[in-house]
Write a structure and sequence with these properties.
- By secondary structure, this protein is mainly alpha-helical.
- Helix content is 78%, strand content 0%.
- It has helices at 2-15, 22-38, 45-69, 71-74, 84-87, 92-110, 115-134, 142-150, 152-161, 168-174, 177-200, 202-208, 213-217, 221-242, 247-267, 272-280, 282-298.
- The radius of gyration is 19 Å and the shape is globular.
- The model has no long low-confidence stretch (mean pLDDT 91).
């Protein structure tokens, strides 16, 4: 049995994109920023460990679900044709089993927090399961992904400020309105970088009939990406300031804005290489915003 697992392990690591950490970093930075804001600084090793590990586990589980849902489409897309499920190297049931184990491990971590956070985790799971099918019905499925990739924000506030009560009222008390606005603002960042990602596959997606923001925006795709960046950075600057962050948080926003302008130079000719590079490097933009917030609280 152990020999068989050692044979399958490289395929599982490929399935969850282990060699490409940019995906889980895109989820991690806004979640950590929310933790720091909610706790007025370092949230402690327990919550930090729970949210880092939980982010990696849930993103990995999401990859399993996404690849199963998209296997019929992915074989027609140059970039995804050799993914383990699409190529048949990992059967559907096996991929779902791996995803279930990873999601269960993440849930065990959530159980060490509090009831409001646990309740929110069910909503997060539902959105994760919904996203792979959104592109069949929604013109801009990246918005659904934006909610999924931003749900760590209210969960972070709930974990820091939540009580021991099992009720929606307890969730409402633990998560202030600004946290939900932060989620909405972060959604625009997801729209920005995932539209860049969709621009890479636009020709393939048009052939197979998948809906994406890159297709919906058409010739306004580059302008749309830059507008999404602007909304994200402006809203996060204003909201983090209203929640107590100071000048160094604005420095992080400024560094993020500089990177967004650089990304414009990468995507303006709509080349596959440029758009994919811009997408891959977005985690540095998120790291800059988080770094400014963390530094601001550390120097008080």
């Amino acid at each position: 049995m152990s020999y068989r697992f050692s044979e399958r392990l490289p395929l599982y690591l490929d399935l969850i994109r282990w060699s490409r950490p940019a995906g889980w970093l895109l989820l991690l930075w806004p979640t950590l920023a929310a933790l720091w804001i909610a706790d007025d600084g370092f949230p402690g090793w327990h919550l930090l460990s729970v949210f880092i590990a939980g982010t990696v586990l849930m993103r990995s589980a999401g990859c399993c679900i996404n690849d199963v849902a998209d296997r019929a489409f992915d074989r027609h897309v140059e970039r995804t044709a050799q993914r383990p499920v699409t190529s048949g190297k990992v059967p559907v049931q096996e991929a779902l089993a791996v995803g279930a184990v990873l999601a269960f491990a993440a849930f065990l971590l959530v159980l060490t927090t509090n009831p409001p956070t646990i309740l929110l985790s069910f909503a997060a799971l539902a959105i994760t399961l919904l996203y792979p099918y959104a592109k069949r019905f929604v013109s801009m499925p990246q918005a659904v992904l934006g909610i999924a990739f931003s749900f760590g924000i209210p969960m972070a506030f709930a974990a820091v400020q939540g009580a021991r009560e099992w009720s929606l009222a307890a969730v409402g008390a633990a998560v202030p309105p600004q946290a939900w606005w932060l989620l909405l603002g972060n959604l625009f960042w997801v729209l920005a970088y995932d539209t860049e990602y969709a621009m890479v596959d636009r020709n393939d997606d048009l052939k197979i009939g998948i809906r994406t923001s890159a297709i919906t925006l058409g010739r306004f795709d580059v302008a749309g990406v830059m507008l999404f960046y602007a909304v994200y950075l402006a809203s996060w600057g204003a909201l983090t300031h209203s929640l107590g962050a100071g000048h160094f948080a604005w420095l992080g926003i400024a560094l993020g804005a500089a990177q967004a302008l650089w990304h414009f130079t990468l995507i303006r000719d709509r080349s596959r290489a440029g758009c994919f590079k811009a997408f891959r490097l977005n985690h540095w933009l998120g790291a800059s915003v988080f770094g400014g917030i963390a530094l601001d609280y550390a120097l008080r």
